[in-house]
Each structure stands twice: as C-alpha cells, then as structure tokens.
Amino acid sequence: MAASLPLLATLAGMAAATASTRLAGAWLASRLRPGGRAVRLLEAVPGIVLAALVAPTALATGGVETAACGLAALLAWRAPAIVAVIGAVALAAGLRGAGL
Amino acid sequence: MRQIAPRGNRAPSPSPPPGPSSPAAGPLADAVAGIAAIAPVVVAALPIGLVFGALAGQAGLGAGAATGMSAVVFAGASQFVALEQWADPLPVASILLATLLVNLRHVAMGAALAPRLGHWPVAARPAALLFMTDEVWAIALARAAVKPLTPAFYAGLAGALWLAWVGSTAAGHVAGALVADPARWGLDLAITAVFIALLRGAWRGPRDLAPWAASAVAAVAVDRAGAPAMAVAAGIVAGLAVVAARILRGGEG
Q1: Is the pTM of this model over 0.90?
Q2: Quick check: B216 and A60 CB within 8 A?
C-alpha cells in the first residue's frame, strides 16, 4: 500500500488518540475522584471492547474458528499470550489441513 | 502493552533492593537498572511484535507503515484492534474510535503515575507519559514505591521496550512476507488469539461476566445481521449499558 492520505491520517490519528489518553491522566488526576462513577465505568471498558472483538470470530464463524479460540482461551489462562497464539494457529492449520 | 491490566500474580518486582548504604550511582546505573527491570517484558514482547509485523504485512500495510505504527502508537492492543479492521477503503473513523476506547485505561494509569513525576523537569513529564505502556507503568510504580523514580531509570524501561517493539515489528513484516496463504496456516486466528489472551489479563472477576456476555451477544447479533462494521460498537454499547446500570444502582460497576 502506498503512503496514501487515508493511511497517513489513520497513523497520525492513532498516534494522537493514544497520546491523548496517555497525557489526559495527568490532567485529570486532580479532577476525577478515585473510585468514582466515571473511573469505574472507564475500568470496565477494555474487557468489553475485547469481548466484542472476539465474539464474532469465536462464536459465529465456523467450527475451526470456535475450536481454535477455545484452545486459545484454555492456554491463555495459564501461559503467556504467545503460547495461546501459537496453539490457536496450529490447531486451525491442522483442522484445515485435515479438510475441515 | 499486551496486557490490558497488569496481573496481580505477575506484578514485576522492583529490581535491585534499595540500600541506604549504596550511594546513588548516577543516571547510567539507573538506566541499566531500568533495562534490567524491563528485560522479562522485552522477552515476552518480541514474539508478539513479530506476529504484529507479519499480520500487518498480510493486512496490506507496507514495512514503513507497520513499523511506523509501532513507533508512534506503541500500544500493542490498539494496534491489533486496528489491524482487525484494516480494509480498503480504510475505515479511518472506526479505527480511531477503537484506538481511543482500547487505550482509555491509560487515563487512569497516567493519573496514578503523574504524581510520581513531580520532581522531574517539567518538559520530561509529558515525554514519560507518552511512552507509558501497561508494563512500563507497573514497573515504574513498583520502583517508585521503594526509591524515587528517576528519568534515567524510566528511560531505560521505556526505551528498551520501545526498541524491542519497533524492531520486532520490522522483523515480523519481513518474515511474514514469506508466507503466501495465511489462512492455510491458521494465521488469521492469531489476532483473535491475542485478544483472548488480553481478555485474560482484563478479567477482574465474576462481575465481568454479565457485561462481557452482553457485549459478545450484541456483537454477534449485529455481525450476523449483516453489519460487521458496526458489531464492535454495538458490543461496547451493550456492555457499557450493563456496567452503567449497576453503577447507577449504587453497585461497584
């Protein structure tokens, strides 16, 4: 992909969005009450975003995808992320190689 | 940067025990101590960076764009989230919204870290925050609990992880270009597996079940209804509604 305008805008925008979240905390430190409603809502965001990202692939794409995601969940419970990635990828490759 | 929240049982221990008898050995020793403290995280981040670089190449990002994203964003979870949505034409607004949401946790983390930088030169404080990742944050706070957090120690922490992340992205992009048919090798599952591992880190206990389930059900329903581009947004709205309702009823959230 050539360095198109949408690509540059996406990279610059992602950098700006990330920078703003990293800097906002210092600004907010004196304004947000620790343990207040806003903070508790913020703390719940990451898991909710990730659940929405995982669910369509894990639950509604196909048997191979569901099996691979199930294995990833089992492995992620005990092992580093990379082990879960390797396990899911290997299982998907194996099942597809077997014609599933 | 891979984990949404540092796990309690893997909290990094502050490196060398501080001794009042050991004189402050200066910035160089502090930087080395910072590098040593982040070393286990670097080892864990290298393969994730390789995966990111490989998948970015297969999603259509050039080597410069993939490596540049790692350099200027330096937030693994949101980078994988962006890849998941990468398409032609680019859904710029959707990617930026997801980046903002995934990184909202930085706001709370920055609020906790900022007071520890109070004795730093004014210009160095925002610079430190710009390189804050989950792991850097956790180790910096652990260090600050036993001795003053110096710019040199923090530079060792963040600098080593940044170099590893950018370098492994570039290497992964080169390696990934050698794989012709990613789906045949199951590589299309790699991003979802990363998210699942991140979910493990984000798990706070049974109270997460209801909002996560609401998010998953809404995302699947909208995806199946033929609007996959709206699926993540629908899940976020549904999950946050559950948490907001609990908070408004006076619950923990």
Answers
A1: no
A2: no
